[in-house]
Amino acid sequence: IANGEQFIIVRIIAFEECYGIRFARLLVSLESIPDKEWEVLCFIDALFAEQVSLPRDFMKNLFFEIEKDYVHIKNKRTRYKEILNNPYFNALQIKYAYALTVHKAQGGQWDYVAMDIGYLPPEMKDKNLVRWMYTAVTRAKKELYLVNFPSNYFTYSRILGNLMGFMPIFIVLF
Fold it and tell me: Strand order in 7-18's β-sheet?
């Protein structure tokens, strides 16, 4: 599995705790090869980490915890090689892939798109916003969800409807 590649979780096999860290053993398939499945071990904490990957100190502490299992190996190079091949040390650091930014979604099409405007200061309401909205709206193939859209934006709903053809548009206001 390459960095940045997306896979689908077919089944959760088990949750484990080892070295004081939570792991999940998963059966996954790649979007590019849907007819083949792999069993992988993943760090659960990586899902919720704010950083792209787990912090260096986290991995360093894990290294030293795993090393305790290999103290019987006197040769330091051989011991380190064993640690680096340990499945828990090599567990995948996965992130949820249910959301993409409009920028990342450019050039792709998605069955379902949720577009959340939220609060926009007046200075952000310009032609760039309209371009961003156009890009987001045209990514949807089946359904488009407009979340937190100001009601005055819907004077243009005929334009959106013509643009999207028969696709339903769902409006969610919070």
Answer: 7-18, 21-30, 33-43
Q: What are residue 22's DSSP bridge partners?
A: 17
50 DSSP 8-state letter: S
The two structure tokens encoding residue 77:
């190079």
Q: In the prediction, which pLDDT does 174 show?
A: 41
Cα–Cα dist 103/89, whole Å: 33
- Tokens matching residue 122: 């007046």
Backbone angles phi, psi at 86, to 5 degrees: -65, 130
CB-CB neighbours of 147 under 10 Å: 14
Judged by DSSP in three states, 66 sits in helix
pLDDT at 34 exceeding the cut of 80: no
Q: Encode pLDDT of 111-126 as tens digits.
A: 888 887 776 677 777 7
Instruction: Please state, as a whole number, how many other Cβ atoms lie within 10 Å of the Cβ of residue 140.
Output: 21
Q: What is the pTM of this model?
A: 0.57
Compute the radius of gyration of the chain from its Cα atoms.
23
pLDDT at site 63: 96
